[in-house]
Amino acid sequence: MIQKLCLSALAILFASSAGAEWELNMPRGVTELSAETYNLHMQVFYWCCAIAVVVFGAMIYSLVKHRKAAGAKPANFSHSMTAEMIWTIIPIIILMIMAVPSAETLIKLEDGRKPDLTVVVTGYQWKWHYEYLGEDVAYYSSLARTSVDARRKNSGIDPNTVENYLLDVDNPLVVPVGAKVRVLITSNDVIHAWWVPDLAIKKDAVPGFMNETWFRAELTGVYRGQCAELCGKDHGYMPVVVEVVEPTAFQNWLDSSRPEN
């Protein structure tokens, strides 16, 4: 039984790349705030590693040095005020070191004033709707046809042959590089979540409520995410794709996307 469980775990671990991409660590991203978020994450991680080394090192040393077989005698004191002061003051100092830069980044994350572009993102079962405020451009973004065909039972299509399987859409969100993009996020039915790791954005789309965030992409490219809130049977089939282009290319795309009069 144990052998079968181990083999199953190995099969899952080394499964084909047809599933969604995953990483052990968060990406640095392509925005200033995503880089700050990554640096804060790594700072906390290093502090946790240092604390683990000290705490577990002291525990292992005590277990080995003061074991009964080595002739150790039990202590005859009940507590140490000095030790209690040290393990109270040091964590407070560490928390303050982490709290100050974290608060600064949190304030920046909520500062959506003076955007260059505002997009309303609405979640549906199971697609996204994008509306560029003041630009007369709006459209739905659904799972790409190639992935739709491959995911069907007995389709005869090998998912490994489909580029960006389950992570591609027919109409991505297009934004200009270097522009401050304000994103207003809501839902038309159930709770969804708009998540793009490279932009350091993960916001819930809640019916009847408007969440707000923003980003400024510093590099052109295509950045992929997914719905991160279990929203029904096709939750795994509503990816998010953001295409960052040069300002001139964005303006041309915007002009061509407007309905003809």
Tally of helical segments:
5
Q: What oligomerization state is this entry in?
A: single chain
Lateral strand order in the biggest sheet: 3-2-1-5-8
Structural class: alpha+beta
For the record, the CATH class of the largest domain is Mainly Beta
Helix share of residues?
25-40%
Largest sheet: 5 strands, mixed
Relevant CATH superfamily of the largest domain: Cupredoxins -  blue copper proteins
- β-strand percent reads 15-25%
3D structure, described in words:
The chain has 2 domains: 32-70 and 79-109, Helix Hairpins (Orthogonal Bundle), CATH 1.10.287; 117-257, Immunoglobulin-like (Sandwich), CATH 2.60.40. It is an alpha+beta fold and 261 residues long. α2 (32-65) packs antiparallel against α3. The chain has helices spanning 2-13, 32-65, 81-109, 145-151, 247-257; strands at residues 117-124, 127-132, 137-141, 173-176, 181-187, 192-196, 201-205, 211-215, 221-227, 239-245. The protein is elongated, with a radius of gyration of 25 Å. A hairpin with a 4-residue loop joins β6 and β7. It has 5 helices and 10 strands. The strands form 2 sheets. A 5-stranded mixed beta sheet has the order 3-2-1-5-8, with no helix packed on it. 36% of the residues lie in helices and 23% in strands.
